[in-house]
Amino acid sequence: MSLVEQYRAHTEERAKLGIPPLPLTAEQTRSLNALLQQNPVQEKEYLLELFLEHISPGVDDAALEKAAFLDGIVKGEISCSVIDSVEAVRILGTMLGGYNVKPLIDALSNSNPAICEAASEMLKKTLLVYDAFDDVVSQSKTNKYAREVLESWAAGEWFSSRPVISEKITLTVYKVPGETNTDDLSPASEAFTRSDIPLHALCMLGSKMTDPIGTIAQLKTKGHPLAYVGDVVGTGSSRKSGINSVQWHMGTDIPAVPNKRTGGVVIGGIIAPIFFNTAEDSGALPVQADVSAMETGDVIDLYPFDGKIEKNGEVIARFELTPNTLADEVRAGGRIPLIIGRNLTRKARKTLGLGEESLFQRPEQPADTGKGYTLAQKMIGKACGLAGVRPGMYVEAETLTVGSQDTTGAMTRDEVKEFAALSFSADLVMQSFCHTSAYPKPSDITLHRNLPFFIMSRGGVSLKPGDGVIHTWLNRMVLPDTLGTGADSHTRFPIGISFPGGSGLVAFAGVTGTMPLNVPESVLVRFTGKLQNGITLRDLVNAIPWVAMKKGLLTVEKKGKKNVFAGRILEIEGLPDLKVEQAFELSDASAERSAAACTVRLDKAPVIEYLSSNIELLEQMIKEGYGDADTLRRRIGKMQDWLKNPTLLEPDADAEYAEVIEIDMSAITEPILACPNDPDDVMTLSEVLRDEKRPKVIDEVFVGSCMTNIGHFRALGEVFRGKGVASAKLWIVPPTKMDMKKLIEEGYYAIFGAAGARIEIPGCSLCMGNQARVADNAVVFSTSTRNFDNRMGTGAQVYLGSAELAAVCALLGHLPNKDEYMEIFSRHLSGSKAENIYRYLNFDKLEKAELELLVD
Ligand code: SF4
Predict the structure, then answer these.
(1) H/E segment holding residue 514
(2) Higher-confidence residue: 189 or 575?
(3) Torsion angle of C-alpha atoms 500, 501, 504, 508, degrees rounded to 10
(4) Mean pLDDT to the nearest integer, 538-546
(5) What's the Cα-to-Cα distance from 249 to each of 242, 304, 633, rounded to whole Å?
(6) Smaller CB count within 10 Å for the chain: N or C?
(7) How confident is the model at residue 46, as a pLDDT?
(8) 3-class SS at 488?
(9) pLDDT band for position 589 (50/70/90)?
């Protein structure tokens, strides 16, 4: 079948779903290039439309073919009757950056002035030039067209030529009542379609609203753009696919960029901070305002600068356009394009000896209080070359460690391509395959084959399918007191600090080694007292919302929800001797609090122990052929440097917090659980048993996820030793292959087998719920991170709690009472037994042969 027949058939197939065809592949682009060289060109209009609008820009393989073809036309090496050399330059200029940049810069010195002129005009609007900036500077000394480019960048014409955000925006409301989490917008079960934005957008809100796509189509007939309106919007994960789907339905096309849209308006009573940032990055306008007077179908007028929303001429809500740079961000096409362009303008002005520009709104910076800094404020300060930062400050922080997982990896890859980047500047970028390795679809297999090369060829580190959960690995690569990010909302380092972001921000951080941050306030959680027998770290995790609720700082109800942690940094102290593996349980769960980030104050000893172990792991990874070896070696070197003089930042005694919550561990005398289906809905075991509406019989138990470590599985094994088959269906999934092999070696898999457990390969498994799932409507006890509706199984009711309580539930088939639990815990898991159970993987203490076996 010819390209044209093939692509038309594909277009018709996709049209049946109401979506456009996929962009052309590199091979299809080569075929298209050949057709465009025929004389005469058959079906000229159709082929030109394919060439102009259906090839992804940046450093996509197809973009390489397109740019080379156009370069050939400009240089007179390729003859094309439907694209002349000046038009070829113009088309090159629509490709955003990457493979088009060199041909455009070459064209500045073409013998044909019309070509030079066109190249100059196109480069003036091109921001993704990276090191090619120096080529323009060098040419500008002798070439007037290059000089014009430099002057235009310095004047910020790329920005001033774009329309200012309208003073009044008329919109039709599409309201999603209550809370929308990112799983509603981009279901985990459809994760494999995320990089195909139009296809993935078809499942937006599918399990939450009745016929959302039909309703949206019908609302569009009113002739106005739609606004996404909700009480609480974007809770949960950092997935950019959520905003991608909103923008696909409510945004505007981007010329010459297929299957992606920008713009759009999101209005939320509360907009979750990561979602807010992702919206900003993507060119949407997020507004936090009272939405109680807005209903689906209402036509409203939004006045961004006056900060009001009107319906039928009456003001129904007021808001503040914040941050103060938001209007500039929307004008530039997003926060990220604004940062890149602003930096380009500054660089050009510096080169030309010009002073500071006055074109862009300066980020508002708070007054210095003169007080001390919190631990997080010192860590962020360190990443900015400052002693500390203040809440409300805007900074661009050095981002040393960046994580990417598989269900967002394809989007991050596409964003890296759109940034036109061929290498990473962040010190370490790591890719995992934990969400899709157990039961991969053909598209996952393709990703498993291709993504490692993409990551490693840019200097990143790639894990392999089956290696295990991203965070358990990435944490082992982190440096103390440094800053990072990741496109998984649980990227929350136990040492240092991490601000998870959408895939666009993560790609930006990976490519540039920096990330934009509006420094949030901090909430201090201070543990005091003594940990009681039978109480686990997971109970302390759940004690944080439990105590916050008692203090009136958190509510479960979504309407008018209170959450003292939302958008703030959760800083935890009072447990300095925790192993770093344990500290991650605390930091990981800060995602469920909707916190922007988390710090855990630890003593040096556990950090020294952890890094000494991790160096051995990384060295073994290099021996096993993991790449990029240079990046791993560089990270080992930095760990060794830290170990030579191990010091950790400490908060100042007079540091200021938005709230201080003290939790007396002596007062926690029984397990605390999160009830179905809300991680904030926490109760003690006795409270749950007294509550008639809570189910007590447990159908399925899941022990796994990044919230677990090897000690949890030994504890499960000890509870089951000699007990035979579990009374509830038991799922066991260790976080990494090293944990799995060690547990096998220690005989625990034999116990799990006797218990009739379903054991999966290391990875996310039921925690993500995108592959295997629990039975419909099952009552589940899980050690995983979150229990949003339908995440783990359709209609499932999921309790979240410790592995120890999970073990007892699996044994009995129901929630135990406090005495039953304490009796089993004391008999199997406490006293001298605990020392043997709660040992962590110290790779530096292993025999060489065992280390090789575990990391193999
Ligand atoms: S185990 Fe769960 S929370 Fe952790 S990375 Fe996987 S899906 Fe995310």
Answers:
(1) strand 514-518
(2) 575
(3) -50
(4) 98
(5) 11, 21, 45
(6) N
(7) 96
(8) coil
(9) very high
DSSP single-letter state for residue 576:
T
CA of 705 to the centre of ligand 1 (A): 6
What whole-number percentage of the chain has pLDDT above 90?
Answer: 88
At the fourth CATH level, the homologous superfamily of domain 169-332 is Aconitase, domain 4 (3.20.19.10)
**At residue 36, what is the residue type?**
L
Question: Which residue, by CA, sits nearest to atom 4 of ligand 1?
Answer: 706
Whose CA is closest to 434, among 759, 182, 737, 181? 737
Model confidence at 238: pLDDT above 80: no
Going by C-alpha positions, the residue among 82, 137, 66, 131 that lies closest to residue 108 is 137
- Is the C-beta atom of 706 inside 6 A of ligand 1? yes
pLDDT at residue 161 tops 90: yes
Whether the predicted pLDDT of 502 surpasses 90: no
The CATH classification of domain 394-514, taken from the options 1.10.240.10, 3.30.499.10, 3.40.1440.60, 3.40.50.970: 3.30.499.10
Q: Is the pLDDT of residue 485 over 90?
A: yes
Provide DSSP, 190-234. GGGGTTSHHHHHTTTTTTTSSSHHHHHHHHHTTSS-EEEEEEEEE
Confidence of residue 181 (pLDDT cuts 50, 70, 90): confident
- Determine the distance separating the centroid of ligand 1 and the alpha carbon of 764, expressed in angstroms: 5
- Is there a contact between 102 and 132 (Cβ–Cβ < 8 Å)? yes
The residues facing 321 across adjacent strands are none
Q: What is the CATH number of domain 672-843?
A: 3.30.499.10
Give the residue, out of 490, 707, 736, 791, with the most ligand 1 atoms within 8 A of its beta carbon, to mutate for a pocket test.
490
| pLDDT tens readout for residues 800-846 | 999 999 999 999 999 999 999 999 999 999 999 999 999 999 999 99
36 by DSSP, 3-state: which? Answer: helix
> Does the beta carbon of 470 sit less than 6 angstroms from any atom of ligand 1?
yes
767 Cα: distance to centroid of ligand 1 (angstroms): 6
- CATH number (1.25.40.310, 3.30.70.980, 2.60.40.10, 3.40.50.2300) of 3-160 reads 1.25.40.310
Is the pLDDT score of 233 beyond 70? yes
Cα dihedral 263, 266, 271, 275 sign: negative
When the pLDDT of each residue in the chain is averaged and rounded to a whole number, the result is 95
Q: Report cis status (omega within 30 of 0) of the bond before 40.
A: yes
For residue 704, the CA-to-ligand 1 centroid distance in Å is 9
CA–CA dist 120, 111 (Å, integer):
14
492 is in an annotated binding site: no
Neighbours of 281 (CB within 10 A): 27
Q: Is 176 helix (H, G, I), strand (E, B) or coil?
A: strand
Indicate which residue's Cα is closest to atom 7 of ligand 1: 768
Judge whether 417 and 56 are in contact, CB under 8 Å.
yes
Encoded tokens for 459: 């200097």
Contacts of 447 (CB under 8 A, 6+ apart): 406, 409, 410, 433, 436
Which of 120, 74, 123 has its CA nearest to residue 97? 123
Which two structure tokens, joined as six digits, stand for 107? 């064209």
Amino acid, single-letter form, for residue 767: C
Phi-psi region of 283 (alpha: psi -120 to 50; beta: other; left: phi over 0): left
CATH topology match: 394-514 vs 672-843: yes
Residue 236 has pLDDT above 80, yes or no: no
Tell me the per-residue pLDDT of 683-702, one tens digit each, with 9 for 90 and over: 999 999 999 999 999 999 99
> Which atom of ligand 1 is nearest the CA belonging to 768?
7
Q: For 397-448, what is each residue's pLDDT tens digit?
A: 999 999 999 988 888 998 888 788 888 989 999 999 999 999 999 989 999 9
* Cα angle, residue 770 at apex, residues 764 and 776 outer, rounded to 5°: 110
Residue 391 pLDDT > 70, yes or no? yes
Per-residue pLDDT at 188: 79
Per-residue pLDDT at 638? 98
